[in-house]
Design a protein that fits this description.
The complex is a heterodimer of chains A (414) and B (231). Chain A is α+β, with helices and mostly antiparallel strands and 414 residues long. In chain A, 56% of the residues lie in helices and 16% in strands. Chain A has helices spanning 3-16, 18-54, 85-94, 129-133, 146-151, 160-166, 206-211, 219-227, 245-259, 272-314, 316-324, 329-365, 377-404, 407-412; strands at 61-66, 98-106, 110-114, 117-121, 123-126, 138-141, 155-158, 177-180, 183-191, 215-218, 234-239, 266-270. Chain B has a 6-stranded mixed sheet, with helices on both faces. Classes of the chains: A alpha+beta (414), B alpha/beta (231).
């Protein structure tokens, strides 16, 4: 007997007991739906978090922060130097792996005013490198340039969130004068809103809303008008090759060691730990959800086994007849196995459908966030294949039992 | 069709012991018998005499505990399960008291089933099955389900199924047991007809009237042959 005929017989058998078959398949449907949806949710979380991290500069970003001087260097802390632009210059010149630098000064934010409207904005003094180091984009106009810095120009690049609050919709922004802490600045650019253009998501997320308020003026302008000294708050770098991250961080450390007169009043920070934690969390989520999904698939498989055993009991005589007219053990095995697989296969297909519907609905609910589920073909196919494997595994025992029946006893069975 | 008188199957000192737990029941004891082509044999005896067991061993459904079973010149006492299935499929045909048709399949599909296990192609299967259904006189019922047929018609379908692979031997276990006298007689007429066409038929029965139709009668009691009319 061919496999194809077995499949046809299997489908007929399922159709003959519609309700029973459906209840049997329910376990597999739910299991596959859970498995496939789990993939989509973890994938969505992964993508969302990854995007959030990319928008903070990603793995390529290194930063130098202020740090406590170690105990044994305390005695000559007075010779120490603050982080200044020359640090950046020496890193740029001496560390080949660094492809971009961004000296930044935190101006602590303040009121930004345009005509009668005013709002609070976090403002930073930066150079042109900030754009690349922090993975940002300008939506309108331009960013801060070297010329702005040299001239100490009073220009500002506004965050999209600020523009939304201060300006009418579609009103011209470039070239307008705004006041930051009562100093006039000409708007030369508007930053791209975070989260826009990626999987069609907009705003949402408080963190991103906060990021969308960030506004920028030239570094030297900020120092001159607001901080009154030449100290930098952050020294950020972009690395070309993340595989050499450790070596490059070490090289930066060595360079700054010299420019800081061997005083360790700084530390090098990377996003590695963040990425590792993120990968860990994603992995843990995947594993725990996978286990739950597997349990439900297991239950589905047991359901199949149960129903196959029951249906064999109902058909002992049939098996006897088939054997009497020449069915080999293998023919019976295949017949029962195919039926189990057809059950689980149909359940798997329905499960994939349920998963698509589920992720679709949840996707609509979560569309404004970074955690909207991502449906990919691979996991769906995988979940479906798992259902087929479950069918084979849990069909094997009933099938072997049916195949081993003694034909005479089976024929006599009432 | 083989030469009349040629040996089709024989048992040589066959003993069959069933052991259920601690109790051993001897169903056949040192039975030797020879079945020749073209015979119409009735195996008779009270229930428990071992007549069904004898048929099962001859028909490759069961194994002898000791002794040799020879089918078409070949010793089948020691062949593998797969080979036994092949022999059941191609060399013998069974007709049962309870018809034993698959209720979810039509007559046509039931008759095709042995051919399917034999690996015969779909079109040839259909044609051969249809021809055999017509031979047993069910041509207009081929697409009916068993439960839509009368007992006699069901038994005809079962006979068609037994014949479809052109077996060397046909075994019938109380084929009229579930039928009234009239339809039973018709089924026996069909067997006689088949016998006239040269088929070798073995009927197991305890009905003297049925046995009277046969050309040779073998009587069993307590697992031994007590009378063999010879051929």
């Amino acid at each position: 007997m061919g496999i194809l005929q077995g499949i046809i017989v299997g489908f007929k058998e399922i159709w003959a007991h519609k309700l029973r078959s459906f209840l049997t398949m329910l376990g597999v449907i739910l299991g596959v739906a859970a498995l496939a949806s789990m993939f989509a949710f973890v994938e969505g979380m992964f993508a969302g978090w990854k995007q959030a991290m990319e928008e903070q500069g990603g793995l390529e970003k290194l930063s130098t922060n202020e740090s406590q001087i170690p105990e044994k260097q305390r005695a000559y802390r007075h010779i120490g130097r603050q982080r200044r632009v020359w640090d950046m210059v020496s890193v740029r010149v001496n560390v080949p792996g660094v492809v971009e630098v961004s000296p930044e000064v935190d101006l602590q934010g303040g009121l930004v005013r345009y005509r009668e409207k005013r709002t609070w904005a976090p403002v930073y003094g930066v150079g042109r490198g900030s754009l690349r180091v922090n993975n940002q984009r300008v939506a309108q106009g331009r960013f801060i340039t070297d010329v702005d810095r040299v001239r100490g120009a009073r220009v500002i690049v506004l965050g999209s969130g600020i523009v939304e609050e201060l300006f009418e919709k579609n009103a011209p922004v470039l070239g307008r004068m705004v006041y930051f802490r009562d100093e006039p600045f000409r708007v030369v650019g508007v930053m791209q809103a975070y989260g826009l253009g990626f999987r069609g998501m907009r705003r949402g997320h408080d963190f991103m809303r906060w990021r969308n308020r960030f506004s920028y003026i030239p570094l030297e302008t900020g120092m001159e008008y607001f901080t009154g000294n030449k100290d930098l708050t952050w020294l950020n770098y972009k690395v070309g090759d993340t595989r050499r991250l450790d070596r490059i961080a070490e090289a930066i450390q060595n360079t700054l060691f010299l420019t800081h007169r061997r005083l360790l009043n700084f530390s090098i920070g990377t996003n590695v730990e963040m990425f590792e934690r993120f990968n860990e969390i994603t992995g843990a989520f995947g594993i725990s959800l996978g286990i739950i999904a597997s349990i439900s698939l297991l239950v589905g498989g047991i359901g199949i086994m149960n129903i196959m055993l029951a249906s064999i009991n109902e058909r002992i005589q049939e098996i006897g007849i088939r054997k009497a007219i020449g069915a080999r053990d293998r023919d019976i095995l295949i017949q029962v196995l195919v039926e189990a697989v057809v059950l689980s296969l149909t359940g798997g297909l329905l499960g994939v459908g349920v998963s698509l519907a589920l992720t679709g609905v949840i996707g609509v609910i979560l569309r404004n966030t970074f955690s909207a589920p991502v449906v990919r073909a691979g996991p769906l196919v995988f979940a479906f294949c798992v259902s087929v494997v479950v069918g084979i595994l849990f069909g094997l025992y009933p099938a072997a039992r049916a195949a081993k029946l003694d034909p005479i006893e089976a024929l006599r069975y009432e | 069709m083989r030469q009349v008188g040629e040996c089709v199957a024989c048992l040589e000192h066959v003993t069959k012991v069933y052991s259920t737990g601690s109790v051993a029941v001897t169903a056949l004891e040192d039975v030797s018998v020879e079945i020749r082509a073209g015979e119409f044999i009735a195996i008779t005896g009270p229930s428990g005499s071992g007549k069904s067991t004898m048929m099962h061993i001859l028909g490759c459904l069961d194994r002898a505990t000791s002794g040799r079973v020879i089918l078409e010149g070949r010793d089948i006492s020691e062949v593998t399960a797969n080979e036994r299935a092949r022999i059941r499929n191609a060399r013998v045909g069974f007709v049962f008291q309870a018809f034993n048709l698959l209720s979810r399949f039509t007559v046509q599909q039931n008759v095709e089933l042995p051919l399917m296990y034999a690996g015969v192609g779909r079109r040839e299967r259909w044609e051969r099955a249809r021809r055999m259904i017509e031979v047993v006189g069910l041509g207009d019922r081929a697409d009916h389900l068993p439960q839509q047929l009368s007992g006699g018609q069901r038994q005809r379908a079962a006979i068609a199924r037994a014949l479809v692979n052109d077996p060397a031997l046909i075994f019938a276990d109380e084929p009229t047991g579930n039928l009234d006298t009239k339809t039973g007689g018709q089924i026996l007429d069909l067997f006689s007809e088949l016998h006239k066409q040269g088929r070798t038929i073995v009927i197991v029965t305890h009905d003297a009237e049925v046995a009277a139709r046969a050309t040779r009668r073998i009587a069993l009691r307590d697992g031994r042959i007590i009378r063999d009319s010879g051929w």
